[in-house]
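Homework help board

Subject: predicted structure for assignment chain

Our instructor gave us this sequence and asked us to write out the predicted structure in token form, then describe one feature. I got the tokens but I'm not sure how to describe them. Can anyone check?
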Amino acid sequence: MTSQRRRALLVLLAPITILLGAFFLIPLGIMVVFSFLEPGLYGGVVWSFYPFNYGRIFGWPLGGGEEFEPLYIQIIFNSLYYAVITVVVALVVCYPVAFWVSRMSPLAKNLVLFAITLPFFANLLVRIYAWLLLLRPTGAVNTVLMSLGIISEPLNMIFTEFAVIVGLVYVLIPFMFLPIYASVERLDWSLVQASQDLGATPFQTFRRVILPLTAPGIAGGAVIVFIPALGNFIVPAFLGGSKVQMTGNVIERQFLQARNWPFGSTLAMTVMASVLILILLYVLWMRRSGKARAAGEVGHA
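My token output:
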């Protein structure tokens, strides 16, 4: 690359680099710094090194009157559990639907895709309030089930784990569907036909041909759904009440109610580190699987 082209590339990349630095890296750096500061007596921070915020979560280091509270670890694991369940449910729903939509006429495809993106035109709070009306004891779901004779008394669905997972799946399901649909649209059906012609069973064709070819869409959707589900605080606040606590709710309370910004930053950094570790493990696993698959193809050749 010549020096002139290098300078032109730097000029083109400078605006987006400055934008990322201003709106992502600087706030992230502030969060890192705050997580190692002492909380002020009436809010704010004291500018002294204070690593004991992490001791409240992990049990080490402790000092400054801070005590180990296992409740926070439990809330983090609960948040991971809800995020994983959300990913699994969204995947189970979206994967077959993506194949069904891909077989539609172009007009029907466009209508379905418009319907899937339609909720983005409405405010998130309005949509969550709609689920409050649907899931409450006198809501539409209980009314329909009782009128059909399926249940004799209203089910207690609101302010439960079920309501939170339903809300998370509803809010995030477009982010799972669109990457999977893009992978299915690019699927080379001649390979599927060749597999069937060579005598493979439908399950073998799915496992050896369809699933690997659509895996990038599944992986992309899983990551895009998992990350916002893990840090979500609006859905559990409205549909989970005080019975279902996720890390996002605890962080929100530390910043806005307890005014303990250092500990809120510590929780946020812990969640972020958990996500980065999981994604790193996933990338390593994908790379190892790719190498194994490539070695197998070379062996067969």
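Reply (TA_rk): Your tokens look well-formed. For the description, you could write something like this. The chain has a mean pLDDT of 89. That's the kind of observation they're looking for.
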